[in-house]
Each structure stands twice: as structure tokens, then as C-alpha cells.
Amino acid sequence: MSVITISRGTLSGGKALAECLSKSLGYRCVDRDTIVQNAAAHGVSQDELREALEKPPTFLERLRHKKYLYVCLIQAALAEEVRNGKAVYHGHAGHLLLKRSPHILRVRIIAPMEFRLSMAQERLKMGRNEAVAYIERMDQDRIKWTQYLYGVNWCDPTLYDVVLNLEYMGIREACAALTTLVRQRCFEFTPEDQAAMDDLVLGSRVRAQLALNDSTSHLEVEVEAERGVITVHGKISSVGDVEEMMHVAQAVPGVSAVNLDELTSPTKA
Question: Which residue among 1, 11, 215, 238 is least crowded, i.e. fewest CB within 10 A of its CB?
């Protein structure tokens, strides 16, 4: 297994599990802060990027289009970071940001409320009532965030390959179970697998550049890549958008051709 993503509620032990897996498997441990720092290299605020990962957009933010830009940058940074495999990522929505990549083990970790309250009181120095309110608020924000961006329920178990409940096992037991699973299914990238991961990176780069460029930043699209050929899906606001998108996409290193036939305009049924 080349990449493991760990999804968890606030203060549910995801970081500890990721660090344990990293040591056990010899994988790199990649956290949200690393991805935010890389994404911020495009000149955006790290604080705003972190907020974009945690909080659903308000109505005004949707109008300003800011969330879309931040998610594009974060997805591109994450894909770049794990492109060569053997990585454990613990951060919000990694399994969704990497949904088109091969060899992802999507893990969901669940911890009982008392465990999470204990963590909040110890780490954040919160009282019990304050900790309950904090955890519930953060969980609701994540549910709204994934629903808005991906149209899915973050708690849906079908989004994951493995769901572990810490009510009757500790971090070490959970780590041992996952380590056994990964080693049983472990394999190195074939050339075809690496090419698929490289396609994900290239598609993410193009999408990020379209979001950053002034002439195309008003659009929200999906981008797929296959052996250097880029296909863009989404809606355009005018015919002029096509030429601008072509210009921006072709300028990204590694792009050999651009297919815009899947785009639709408001005038089309």
C-alpha cells in the first residue's frame, strides 16, 4: 500500500496513529501544516488556508470564490507531496482530495467522547462543557465542509476502506492492525501505477493554475490528466473563457494537449 490517509474527528487520536504507522512501516508522516506551507508558496495566507480546511464557506465566501482557490492549492500540494508513495497523511479530507489516485488506504478513526474530552482538557486546557461545545462545533463544520465541496457525508463509512473504533482498542493496537493489513497487501508502484499518480499531480497543477490566473480564476472546474493530455470539465461563462483556459493549461509543464470539449456554457441545454 503506497499512501494511507487518516480521517478523524477533532482530538480523536489521528496524529498519534499516523506517527505510529510512520515508524512501523518506514513511511513518511505528512501533516496538514506541511501541505498548508507548500500551498502557501503561491502567495496566499497560511491562516486562511488552514481555515479553508476546517470551516465550511459562508454565503459571502462562496460569492468571493475564495474557498475553491484554496482547495485547489491544497489538493495540488498534497498530490505533489505523496506522488512517490509510502506516506501517511493525517489531515482533513485527504481521502477525498486524492480520490483519483491509485493505492490509497482510506482509514477512518473513531474515538468515544470521553477519550476526546480528555484530550481537549489535557491539550487545550478546556473545561468539560467548553470541550464538548468545541468538539461538536468542529465536527459539524467538517460535515458541512465535505457536503458543500463533495456532496458526501463525512461520516459515511462507505467512503473508507477501514473504520477503527478506539473504544475497545488503543492507538498501538490500531497501529498493529493497520500495519498487518498494509504489509499483507504491500506492493511497489508499477510503471502504470506511477503514471497514474503523475497524472493526478499534473491535473491538480493545471486546476491550481486555472484558479490562480486572473483570466480564469472566476471558473470552477474539474481537471483530469492522462499521459499529458488534459481534459477540463465544468461550465464557462463566455466563449472567451475557452481561449483563456487553453492558454493557461498549455503553459503548465508536462501538458502535451488540452481537451475542452467537455465544457458547457449557459446557452447549452
Answer: 238
